[in-house]
Amino acid sequence: MTHTPDTGLELLSAEDRISRVLSLREAGDDQSLAELIAGWHGGEVAEVLEGLPSPDRNLLWSLLPEAIHSDVLSYLHDRVRAGLLESIPTEDAVAATLEMEPPDLAEVIASVSDELGEAIMESLGSDERSQVEESLAYPEASAGRLMETEWVAVRGDVSLEVVSRYVRRRGSLPPHTDGLMVVDREGHYEGKLAVDALLTRNPEQLVMDVMQAEADCVAVDTEQSQVAALFQRRDLVSVAVVDRERRLVGRIVVDDVMGIIRAEAEQPLMQMAGLEQGEDLFAPVLISARRRLLWLGTNLLTAFLASWVIGRFQATLDQIVALAVLMPIVASMGGIAGSQTLTLAIRGLALGQITDANTRWLAWKEIAIAAINGLVWALVVGVVAWSWFGIPGIALVLGLAMIVNLFAAAASGLAIPLVLERVGLDPALSGSVILTTVTDVVGFVSFLGLATWLLL
Amino acid sequence: MTHTPDTGLELLSAEDRISRVLSLREAGDDQSLAELIAGWHGGEVAEVLEGLPSPDRNLLWSLLPEAIHSDVLSYLHDRVRAGLLESIPTEDAVAATLEMEPPDLAEVIASVSDELGEAIMESLGSDERSQVEESLAYPEASAGRLMETEWVAVRGDVSLEVVSRYVRRRGSLPPHTDGLMVVDREGHYEGKLAVDALLTRNPEQLVMDVMQAEADCVAVDTEQSQVAALFQRRDLVSVAVVDRERRLVGRIVVDDVMGIIRAEAEQPLMQMAGLEQGEDLFAPVLISARRRLLWLGTNLLTAFLASWVIGRFQATLDQIVALAVLMPIVASMGGIAGSQTLTLAIRGLALGQITDANTRWLAWKEIAIAAINGLVWALVVGVVAWSWFGIPGIALVLGLAMIVNLFAAAASGLAIPLVLERVGLDPALSGSVILTTVTDVVGFVSFLGLATWLLL
Known about the structure:
The structure is a homodimer of 456-residue chains.
Chain A: H1 14-26, H2 30-38, H3 42-50, H4 54-63, H5 69-75, H6 78-87, H7 90-96, H8 102-111, H9 114-122, H10 126-137, H11 143-146, E1 153-154, H12 160-170, E2 179-183, E3 189-194, H13 195-200, H14 207-210, E4 217-219, H15 224-234, E5 238-242, E6 248-253, H16 254-272, H17 285-312, H18 314-319, H19 322-350, H20 356-389, H21 392-422, H22 427-455
Parallel strand pairs in A: 1-2, 4-5
Antiparallel strand pairs in A: 2-3, 5-6
Helix pairs in contact in A: 1-3, 3-5, 8-9, 8-10, 15-16, 16-22, 17-22, 19-20, 19-21, 19-22, 20-21, 21-22
């Protein structure tokens, strides 16, 4: 925080809020804590909850005015929300969801235990329940799961004046209404009447003459990542969602999309480290440990494979122990270079930039970079190894192995994610383990193999 | 692409468009290519340009109608845009920017070479030039650099009816106007009049009675990442930007923020692999190679340090060559476990979730996970090593070293990013190199050191 005079313009960051909460918490001053958070917006409370260890989460939750429970829940990430709801009595968890809209309810139900999900379902009226069931019937990560079901629809053959009177009588518009939906008698989507137009165009004009007929709409089964790309590509605030017959069924607004954009961009980082997308930093130890245990186990297999490879060359190592000293260099450089290519490829695939038609160009580029890197660093490690051990043969072997492994790294860094994507697996999830296996094995085999062949 | 009947509802992804362009390109059919892209929106063309190797980019650019050049430029990422503008004749580059708004122009000028930047500056009228200069005077990555300078302002003491008439006379609203700015006589920001209110409230009411007086505004020097967090926390479509005296100076809209959210979430992934945020996948080989060469060089230092550490134990290795075979396991598992902690910490810092007050809890959690992982995998590697080499002492040393290194990995995976952040360095940029250095050194020292001590 900068120390400018208080103009009321300092944005409080999540960090500032978390610090304040934790210091009141440590002082045991629950009264002041309740007062502090009482004026906060749901999104602000959610940010703070996500930055607290789980016991403190429950305390803060209990201090919140019940009226904002639903709002806070709608801002929390899946895992944090599920952890919180499952750690409080079921009736409190059900009560907290009472004010939520059906699409948000569906999201909650999909993320909590079956038991709690059923309890929430049972608390709903029949109308709401069928709306939630409808939402859950759409495939995961589809537009149908994301859309809101509140909108204002008008017909194309009425005048703007009539629409204005209708809106005024209605009394309010759903949040983020940048346009009204124009539909025909059967509910088919025809276009968007920008709110702008209502304010600026001649009131006697007909809706159909003023609306954007070519306004984007998306099918209800479109993937959310495609919807997010559309919002970014077209600078949208909202988009209509239609079924396969073009009947209007919902509306996606930009604030739901911001969450998707963030999650999508963050996913490869987390997955490449064997973490869950949206992993809860403050999850209880046992929950975090279980998943990480598996990840280390997977990587241990790779490490043992590398050891087994080295074991094949035990006789060579026995004769020239200097090889053992230099051995990790080639494997490690291959891993670093390969993960650069892998990261670029994974991001390129996520952005839809890599196609069959440009893969060849990319492969050529990565090979060319490997050649440059290989030659430069082979020379460097060769010179260093020579001056260290004084054996030109070892320097030669080290340099050659480096070149071999950097080529292998480039080729596999590109090929592994492409193949995984082709067979329908997530390249970010297992790409790095497979890559390390390749660069370790090629690194040790080339170095120790060349040494056996040339030096013994 | 699924093969449903064409309902006009299939969203064309970036990948689909890139494939079409490249296949027409290969067929040499520039005529059809020009027709294909003529109907595309600026954001769609930009997506395709970013997925083309650089020579193809220039061809596609030359086929574009000149009228949309500026629009396309405003969607391109910095690096791609700079590369494109610098590869075409200066007068064409200047012409392409002619239609851009001053804030976009400032962004272009900041990203291209000084020479081209000056040429663009010289082409501007004096009004525009001073607007651009004003924008460039704000600190990089501040709200001032992001904001648009077009808005509709009204006074609080007029009726909604008067506002409606004013807006109608004006004839249009700037894009993404979800509210009008309410300002006093001196231009101080007083609140937001939602467009909603104009449509639904009694026209005789005064603006000041209807406006949101507590509407968010941000100071012009606020960091863009803070602005993005505010948009997500509050579900905003636009926000007013004010100077330190609360005078209205601009307006940030959600589509600019989507780019920030994406870039922020993607940055750690790229930086941890030693790549640039927004790295151009299809950049020319020499440009890409230079940066990657440096990254490999940095990591080579780490590798040599590890080798030097191993070299200290050459005598031990000489006596028990089995140690050389098992040696990489401990270092590699430490690296994997440490990078999980590191990744979580880097993301937590970026989200503002980690504060002084909860660091202790986090440290305790990571240590506890390291203890569980250490015990489990120490046992496993011990058993495997025993059955492989039949020497219980080696198994014991391997298991103990594993436990030591997993603790070191947890401690340094958390401490390194916290210290880097504290001293003002970017944890994602150098965190992984430092971490690997620690886990390699501790891994080799603990394994070979314990072996020297216990087995010789």
